[in-house]
Amino acid sequence: MIKLYWSPRSRSFTTLWLMEESGLPYERVLTDISTGAQKAPEFLKVNPMGKVPALSDGDAALGEAAAICAYIADRYPETRLAPDIVDPERARYLQWLFFSPGCIEPAIIQIFTKIEIPTSTAAWGSATQVFDVLEAALAEGPWILGEKFSAADITVGSGLNFAVRLFKMVPSRPAFDAYLARCMARPAFQRAEKIAAG
């Protein structure tokens, strides 16, 4: 049985949404990060970083939301959450799957901390560039790969949900609003949001 280690009002939302979209049976293991449960030796065997979300599936164990999305989409192809390994669309899928942790999250931190980092040395370029590039990609829609919803939409949609809708750190744009509305209309998103609220 797949076990998803999670905590309410945390980055666990991405993987809750993933598991709800997948249709796979899974057990939610509540991990109370306010008490330090994520630092317990048993949990550190699943994710040595001591963070949620984390996932175990038989002998496999991993952390990091985007990695969990990649694992589930590839390990369970019947979920149809990723292009086939030989599909040319796979390249864009992988780029966008990791865009949230690699670009959106650092851009949010840059905005929040107001740290000026030269675009030539920041791995994500700049916050402005991140959201301009994302806006252009989403304008084609309805999903990040066009007509096909994928696990990449889960990572990108979660990142935008936090940046634009929940924390209002990134100004709303018409393409973002339309994309978030499509994400929020998905029954799996709605179920995940109820679970994540605790």
Automatic annotation (TrEMBL):
A Pfam short name: GST_N
Domain GST N-terminal: from-to ranges: 1-80
InterPro entries in alphabetical order: Glutathione-S-Trfase_C-like (IPR010987), Glutathione-S-Trfase_C_sf (IPR036282), Glutathione_S-Trfase (IPR040079), Glutathione_S-Trfase_N (IPR004045), Thioredoxin-like_sf (IPR036249)
Residue ranges of every copy of the GST C-terminal domain listed in the record: 86-198
Name used for this protein in its record: Glutathione S-transferase family protein
Record organism: Bradyrhizobium arachidis
